[in-house]
């Protein structure tokens, strides 16, 4: 009888040892899975710039689901083993069974944490892929913006070069004598007598002007409607004006033209002749009621 009990006790001890060894193997495998998950997360962080397709992500989700199913089955098998042991184990081995249950509970907690880590890793990896896609899209937009900016800068430089106006360098000229002309009735009048003007006197030009009033302080004149140079015939006007201007060197004389409103349309003809002759000129537009006062003296103009 005693020998039979001893044999039965030894068999239970052997069964318990086998279960403990199996349990230890499960613990080892679980710890190995946790370590592998941690190392895989580090590798994913290091390879954050790599691109994984949606198909690869789906395969990872399936692998994770299969691993969770396997872990759940192992937990159920372990629970059944412990329940079987509780029904057949002798009283003297109850303490070891209690220790096994505590270890099993800790193992279950570890497996839950491992499953949670696996899910978190998958979610982080998906977020990482999404971030990578957004960054790639932003990089493309940045490249397009840089290209557009380069084109705009090139166009801006071309427009700036096209708008560059080269102005002549300012020069200092000695003061010039002023030659006064009047433009009205579409005719150009020399206000002063050319012969007197060359001698330094500024007297009215009797060929172009009619003296209407003489006073001790002033002489009032009026241009003759039929005198002067008729600008409605540009070719003849050019010949006559150049002939009169020939007596006044461009290096010593400038031209000032007083223009009345009735002759604005022929001003371009007079300006063309004066400018082609090489004279500095100034324009003085006036109203019909404007009265021009010449106080005499020898005028000099700075240009």
Q: Could you explain the architecture of this structure?
A:
The chain has two domains: 2-162; 176-301, Nucleotidyltransferase, domain 5 (2-Layer Sandwich), CATH 3.30.420. It has 303 residues and is of the alpha/beta class. The protein is rod-shaped. The model is unreliable at 1-6 (pLDDT under 50). It has helices at residues 2-46, 54-88, 94-162, 194-198, 234-245, 267-276; strands spanning 176-184, 187-190, 209-214, 219-223, 229-230, 253-259, 281-285, 300-301. The N and C termini lie far apart (143 Å). The strands form two sheets. Strands 1, 2, 5, 6, 7 and 8 form a six-stranded mixed β-sheet that branches. The chain is built from six helices and eight strands; from the N terminus they run αααββαβββαβαββ. Helix 1 packs antiparallel against helix 2 (54-88) and helix 2 (54-88) runs antiparallel to helix 3. Residues 57-162 form a coiled coil. Keywords: Coiled coil, Membrane, Transmembrane, Transmembrane helix. The chain crosses the membrane at residues 12-37.
The secondary-structure element order is HHHEEHEEEHEHEE
What is the end-to-end distance?
143 Å
What is the total domain count? 2
- How many runs of DSSP E, i.e. beta strands? 8
List the helices and strands and how they pair.
Layout: H1 2-46, H2 54-88, H3 94-162, E1 176-184, E2 187-190, H4 194-198, E3 209-214, E4 219-223, E5 229-230, H5 234-245, E6 253-259, H6 267-276, E7 281-285, E8 300-301
Parallel strand pairs: 1-6, 6-7
Antiparallel strand pairs: 1-2, 1-8, 2-5, 3-4
Helix pairs in contact: 1-2, 1-3, 2-3, 5-6
């Amino acid at each position: 009888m005693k020998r039979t009990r001893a044999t039965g006790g030894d068999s239970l001890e052997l069964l318990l040892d086998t279960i403990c060894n199996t349990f230890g193997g499960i613990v080892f495998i679980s710890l190995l899975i946790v370590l592998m998950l941690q190392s895989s997360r580090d590798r994913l962080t290091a390879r954050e710039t790599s691109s994984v397709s949606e198909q690869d992500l789906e395969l990872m989700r399936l692998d994770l689901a299969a691993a969770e199913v396997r872990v759940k089955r192992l937990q159920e098998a372990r629970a059944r083993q412990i329940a079987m042991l509780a029904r057949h184990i002798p009283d003297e081995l109850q303490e070891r069974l209690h220790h096994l249950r505590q270890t099993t509970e800790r193992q279950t907690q570890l497996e839950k944490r491992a499953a949670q880590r696996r899910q978190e890793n998958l979610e982080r990896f998906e977020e990482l892929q999404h971030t990578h896609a957004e960054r790639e899209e932003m990089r493309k937009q940045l490249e397009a913006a840089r290209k557009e900016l380069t084109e705009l800068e090139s166009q801006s430089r071309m427009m700036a070069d096209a708008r560059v106006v080269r102005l002549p360098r300012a020069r200092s000229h000695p003061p010039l004598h002023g030659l006064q002309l009047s433009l009205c009735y579409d005719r150009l009048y020399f206000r002063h007598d050319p012969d007197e003007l060359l001698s330094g006197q500024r007297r009215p030009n009797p060929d172009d002007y009619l003296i209407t009033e003489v006073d001790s302080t002033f002489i009032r004149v009026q241009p003759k409607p039929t005198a002067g140079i008729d600008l409605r015939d540009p070719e003849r006007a050019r010949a006559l004006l150049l002939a009169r201007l020939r007596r006044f060197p461009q290096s010593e004389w400038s031209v000032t033209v007083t223009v009345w409103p009735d002759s604005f349309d022929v001003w371009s003809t007079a300006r063309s002749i004066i400018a082609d002759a090489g004279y500095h000129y100034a324009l003085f537009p006036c109203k019909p009621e404007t009265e021009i006062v010449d106080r005499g003296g020898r005028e000099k103009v700075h240009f």
